[in-house]
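Re: beginner question about structure tokens

> Can someone show what the tokenized structure looks like for a real chain? I only ever see the sequence side.

Sure, here's an example I had lying around. Input first:
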Amino acid sequence: MADVSEFKLFRSAAGLGLRALRNFKKGESLLEYTGRKLHRDRAAPRPNRYLFELNDPWMIDGSPRTNLARYINHSCDPNAQAVHHEDEDRIFIEALRPISVGDEITYNYGDEYVDEFIRPVGCKCSKCLNGQAVPPQAAAPGRAADAPRAANDGGPKAGRRARRAG
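And the corresponding structure tokens:
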């Protein structure tokens, strides 16, 4: 797995993002998505967008700033993926294809997360900003399109999801 010194935070269209400071090979493990393991019932009163679903009912609260993987933005054309290593109950970010120095590290957060948080305001990944956009949806009655929503609104579709290793 890569060292945290091999990445750099930067300001992107979607907020803070993460760039590679060295080349990575396809399949290489980049970072671990870290944080406290929470039961869904304990996560419910915690409004944040950094909840990563391990399995029902467990999630990782990746909100601490020490979790460098929290800065990886969503992309509709990602260069990495989140992989759940079930034997260890951990989430690792792995390269889907070669990643070059200076590339932003991205992964697809999954349809449910995109529908819940990204689609209402429009996707800001480079693919979408270059004309193949995931268009914003109209806001629900009585709610502004950009109003923050808790990551646990809507139950199981709240957290990001990972592909299972194996």
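Each token stands for a local structural state, so reading them left to right follows the chain. The domain at 4-164 is CATH 2.170.270.10 (Beta-clip-like).
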